Structures are given as structure tokens and as C-alpha cells.
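Worked example

This section walks through a single chain of length 305. The input is the sequence exactly as stored; nothing has been trimmed or padded.
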Amino acid sequence: MAGSYQEWSTLSIEPEAYRIIEAPLCVESNWSGIDMAPQAMLRAGLAKTPAGRDTVSLPPADWRPERSTDGVLNPLQVREYTLNLADTVHEAMRSGRVPIVLGGDCTILLGCLLGMRRTRSARLFFLDGHMDFYAPEQSPTGETADMELGLAVGRGPEVLTEYGLGGPLVSENDTAVFGFRDEAIVEAIGGTNVRDSAMHCASLSDIRLGGFSNAVCGALAFLGESDPFWLHVDLDVLNPWEMPAVDYPMADGLRWGELYGVIRRCAATERLAGLDVTIFNPTFDWDGSVAQTIARVLTAALGLR
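Given that input, the structure is written out below as C-alpha cells.
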């Protein structure tokens, strides 16, 4: 169960229980501004007490975009960044902190899961407007941020899937995919649909048809009742009328209140090992209001103090 309203409405996390990790990675063929997101969210008031905030900062990517023979942009550099982020996430967990990783693009999920795997087995609640399940040869961009889910479950080149774990970063059987709405796009491009996997799938259409609360509870039930899980939050899961500051907007999407509800219920399970937040582009946030909304929703949903 995701917990009753009384259980998750009073949730709070003290400052000493979490660590904010800035991971301003942006693996794109053209600079977009996503690497400025961590600082923008923190300046907007994420985790309300800056003086007591436990924050670690990784550097942004400093390489030129180069496509490998299999079509992936900068795979060797992405692997190095993944390993460095994994070290930082692992250290936070080893210290008893819940890592809150601020991206950057969705590539950071790989380092988050690898860091978790160094501590325990991993399960994944994947909250994203896109499937991000392209194989390298299918990807329209070559960016690891549109194939990170596939890489995480072991589908892709060894340089980005093999980390000495004896298997993928996370099993398809331990992954719930929630909120995607790009099935028609994926089909048109010839990409692989997440429904052709062992993952639990709840598209936006599924959520609207079966009910939001039922969909959240179903995804959490799939992940089990005892094992910790990682939460990936790509802010393009939101309706662009609510969240315009993303690089690849699509029609429709969740509302802010629904995003709050998903995160809150995940946190209320007391099995949330950590989370990452990605794809906010401050260059589309001319007055800072989007950053302020992100900060308010995350702070409230996680009960941060």
C-alpha cells in the first residue's frame, strides 16, 4: 500500500537525513541550458534552509559532442561521469543520507542506479513523459537522455551497460514506468515500446482510464512491499501549460498536483532510497516562476525542512 492520507500528509524529512547532489550533466549536440537547472532550483528555495543544506556539486560536462560508431554521443565521457556520480550517490547512502540528485538531463539516472547498486539491489519508479527506451541505432538524437531507461535495464553498448555487476543496473522485472505519452512518436520512428518488455507500464492514457490513485498504487505494488527503490523524475512528465521550461515538450501530461501526489506517496512508503530530478531548462523560465514552483512542489512532496 502507498499509505493512507494521514500517513503521507504529515511526512517530513529532517535536513540531516538527505543530501542534495548537483549533477549538471547535459549530453546534447547543442548547449541548451539544462546544466543550469540545479543552481536555479536551489536559488528558488528547494529545501528551504540553505544554511543547513548538505550539498555536493559535480562539475558540468566539459566535452564537445562527438558521435561514436554506434550512434551514441560521447559514450566514454558519459561512462566516466556515471562512475563519478555513482561514487557520490554511494557515499551519501553509506552515510545514511537520502540522495536528492538534481540534473541535468536524464543520463544521470545511470550514475544514480549504479551508486545504489553499490549499496543494495535496485528497483526503479520511472516517472517520465517519454519512454527513453530507444536503442542507439533507433535514437533520433544520439543523446543518452533518450535511451537511459534501455541502458539501465542492460539494452545497449557495453560501455554504458556493463559495470561489473553481473547484470544490468536494474532488472526489467523491478522497474515501473509511469506517465509516458510518446507511443505514437516511438512507433513512427521505429523505436522499441516499453510494453514489449517485462516492465510495469502505465502510460498517461492508462492513468486517465484507470484513475490516478489506482495507477500510483499499482506501480508501487509492482515494486514490492519491502525493497527500497529509486525514483526518477523527468519534469517533462508534466503538461507543458504547467511546465513550459523543457527542451522536448509534448501535448498533455500530468498536473503539478499529480506530480506532488506521486512523489509524496513514494516517500510515504519509507522505501524511497533516493531520487533524481531532470530536464528543467532555466533559459525558458524568464521570470524564475517555474523554478519556484519546482522548489515548492519538491520541498512539500518530500517534506523537506
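What to look for: The CA atoms of residues 33 and 281 lie 6 Å apart.
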